[in-house]
Write a structure and sequence with these properties.
Length: about 140
């Protein structure tokens, strides 16, 4: 059954993660960590007040965390805070409540649907989404202050 979650496409995404590294002057940095498996994702985000303008990350995670981070890195630039919060919620609902996978520009996340059957793998799959929303929250807090 683990072959379902570690399928060829997930392994391809994990092997080809774009935007690895750090930004020289991010608007926010956030780290998400799974206590269960030890996976960690640290992201740097540049945001112009309306959309993500740049993104980089360091991913120390299992293949599932790497695959979701890979999809995030391919899709995040140009997205709004509202859209990124919505995709995190859609992923959470897909994994925990059996909701459908995100669609549109995020449709590659469908490859992660089999993870819903493995609760111990949910946290690592959601790390990149949690880190991005944390960074957006930091940016909004700074702007409100």
């Amino acid at each position: 059954m683990l072959d379902d979650i570690y399928n060829r496409r997930i392994l391809e995404l994990a092997a080809e993660i774009p935007r690895i590294g750090r930004l020289p002057a991010p608007d926010a940095t956030a780290t998400a960590h799974s206590k269960l498996c030890g996976s960690t994702v640290t992201i740097d985000l540049a945001y112009d007040g309306e959309r993500v303008t740049d993104f980089a990350h360091e991913v120390r995670a299992c293949a599932l965390g790497q695959a979701s981070s890979s999809i995030m890195a391919r899709t995040v630039v140009g997205r709004t805070a509202e859209e990124l919060r919505a995709v995190r919620e859609a992923m959470r609902r897909m994994l925990k409540e059996g909701a459908p996978a995100p669609e549109g520009v995020w449709e590659d996340l469908k490859v992660l649907e089999p993870v819903r059957e493995y609760k111990a793998r949910h946290a690592s799959t959601l790390l990149t989404f949690d880190a991005v929303v944390d960074a957006l929250d930091q940016i909004e807090s700074k702007r409100a202050a």
